[in-house]
Amino acid sequence: MGRIYDATWGRMFAATYDRGLKATEEAGLRRMRSELLAGARGRVVEIGAGTGVNLDLYPDAVEELVLVEPDPHMAKRLRVRLAESGRQATVLEAPAERPGLEGASFDCAVSTLVLCTVPDPEATVAELSRLLKPGGQLLFIEHVRSRHPGLAAWQDRFEKPWRFLADGCHCNRDTVATIASSFEVEAIEHDRTPKAPPIVRPLVRGSAVLTG
Fold first, then answer.
1. N- to C-terminal Cα distance for the chain?
2. Domains of the chain and CATH, by start
3. Judging by DSSP bridges, how do beta strands 42-47 and 132-143 pair with one another?
4. Summary mean pLDDT of the chain
5. Are the C-beta atoms of residues 109 and 45 closer than 8 Å to each other?
6. Distance CA 115, CA 163 (A)
7. CA nearest 83: which of 52, 105, 46?
8. What mean pLDDT is predicted for residues 99-118?
9. β-pairing, 62-68 with 90-92?
10. pLDDT of residue 50
11. Taking the CA of residue 52 as centre, how many other CA atoms within 13 Å lie in the half-sphere pointing to its CB?
12. Is this structure's pTM higher than 0.90?
């Protein structure tokens, strides 16, 4: 029964994902995505590509694009959007922690609203550092644990029900610390997720570089 329920919920979540984020995107998130992805270049890997909301925002400086998405329902919609876009890209239906890609082969990695949901964020960030060439850049937009103790406490209280409703999303992860464990964070801006519940409103966007 659990597997049937999970499959049904996953299909429903994928089908309503774009519609559910529409107000948030129009209120500023899409602008944030566009500004972030303007810095993408060379060979790019995007993890948790979802339904492909970033597809038409990549600049001409991107020479090759690999889209990694583990959920089969999301990946199905991603392939449809990719075909309609006319853009050349490769879709891999694989987990972000183990995409099966060659190490030190990408110039840029992209993560937008993904590290909240991956089962193992530390392993995911470590894998991104493995995939990037020395000096490679990680571009990210992620909702994070609040810097304010009161809101952080509410995030902890609601983490389990939110994770159930939002298909595995953890609202209280300290994602900046996770990124900093494998990268040097070179630019970061604390912001707010537009038109979002308070527990997922704290947002960071920025870039990190692979050193050493």
1. 48
2. 2-209 (3.40.50.150)
3. unpaired
4. 93
5. yes
6. 13
7. 52
8. 97
9. parallel
10. 94
11. 24
12. yes
Q: Could you tell me which residues are beta bridge partners of residue 46?
A: 67, 110
The two tokens of residue 209 are 């570089």
Q: Cα(159)–Cα(33) distance, rounded to whole angstroms? A: 25
Tokens at residue 210, please?
Answer: 């692979």
Name the pLDDT band for 9 (thresholds 50, 70, 90).
low
Q: With contact defined as beta carbons under 8 Å apart, do 109 and 129 qualify? A: no
CA-based torsion, 49, 52, 54, 58: positive or negative: positive
Alpha helix (H) residue ranges in the chain: 2-24, 30-37, 72-85, 121-131, 149-165, 175-180
Question: What are the beta bridge partners of residue 68?
Answer: 47, 92
Q: Look up residue 56 and give its DSSP letter.
A: G
